[in-house]
Predict the 3D structure of the following.
Amino acid sequence: MPEPQTYIGAYTRDGFAGLRSSIVRQQYTAPFAKVNGGYAPRCFNLLDVQKADIEQAEGLPVTLLEGDGIALEVAHHDGPSKFAIRNVFADEVHFILQGSARLECDFGTLDVVSGDFIHIPRAVSYRFGEIEEPVVDVVIGVDSQLLLRPDNPPGTLNVVRDADQPRPWDAGQVSLDEHRLVIRHGEQTTEYVFGYDPLLSVASRGPAVVQRFNFADVHALMVDGDGGVPPARIFDDPTTNHLIFNISSRESARPPVHNNADYDEIAIYTAGPDRWGAITRPGAIGWVPKGIIHHGPEEDTPGGFKAFLIETRANLRLAPAAERIAETMETGQYGPFAGGER
């Protein structure tokens, strides 16, 4: 008599860094038949955020997911910013999903393009200047100090070679026009008005504060055999509350069925050409709350794809702009659940 088929699932504490135990079952536990209640995985595409929500934000990012100490947001820039922003409660990581522009900040200027990550620490002022192509900017704000500290350097990311910092402002550049600066302090904002440009500087000295690199220069960890090696971390957090990983395509067996006891997971698909499970459109987001069993799609695809993962100890909730476009997500291929209701 043949042995019954079995499935191995992983139960983890502290995400990829803590206790890991395996559970062997004869049933495949990623699918569910029905959900009654609000604690459920959800999927949506941030490019589908309604125009009214973007306009109502009046130049500030639109919040999509939020929890204690973290917010995932999206901002659209079709022209130069009408004001600068300084987030005094949060470090921010910006990902340029689409477009190209000049980013201006206290430390100088950067020409940013699609695929760029920009780390803007707490209390640094910034704005978008000249826009070459309309920008869709994914913003991750967290209340702890994020550090660009990739796993296994320089293999994952050669920070010395591939991460840069703003170039100095043009010498002698002066502006005595009226300039606005919006201070973000949690969910509240306060506006300051100046008779000069508060971002202009002559030079900066010391370690890099604002850093930029492109996702194309971030490489996945290749795995021989049966896989099981966690994805490579890109951004670290000394408190371990909020972490960002590279989950792009790689030579590896499919990840195991997973019950992540301590972290909500937000997967963000940024580019093909290949699909990732049921996901085909850049800007797609799959959110799995902590303690919900899921099975990440195949990572070993012939043409490749780019995606990153945010892990947070916060208990996330959908903001109204995302609630309007989100669907219940099935947890095997990360597509909409056929029987789910929004």
